Amino acid sequence: AGIFKWDNGNFAQCLYSSQKDFLIGAMIIGAKRLDDGNIALYTLKKGVIVLDTTLNVIAKYSSTQGLLSDEVHDLAQDNYGNLWLATQKGVSRVQYPSAISYFNEKSGLPGNVLCIKKHEEKLYVGSTDGLFVLEKGKEDFFYNLPEIKGKVWAVDCDEKSLWVAYGRLSRQKR
Fold first, then answer.
1. What pTM was estimated for this model as a whole?
2. Out of 3.90.226.10, 2.130.10.10, 3.20.20.140, 2.40.50.140, which CATH number does the structure's domain 28-173 have?
3. Which residues contact 37 (CB under 8 A, 6 or more apart)?
């Protein structure tokens, strides 16, 4: 377990022992490079851990700091630098590098959130209850896309279409 980089045909472990100790049990499931060059690790047990470019831990976001859940399935960063976290209990927004706000069934977002994708001023969120959208200027309430029913596993887009994986692959022309 840990973080490795591919270097000259070999994997090399990148963290010091104190950092490894902190990450033990975190269950890292993904990483994204942030706009400022830092790396956000999202985990199943310890929320989100942000590393600087030299891999030092510079921020930790968990239920202790206000996340809805420490179980984070995915994350996206918007044009303002905010981090949008797909958690087990809804969407948490981190006004990176500072405050946290959250979205759940009271915000029109039911179910266990599984994936999140920002595209063209909209935030698409897939949950166990379908696909939901948050539009720019309406940052307090999600609406459901009724064409997509059931558990949404992944959302992506190309120049012409929004692609949704939910039991079967679906394409919605934009």
1. 0.63
2. 2.130.10.10
3. 52, 53
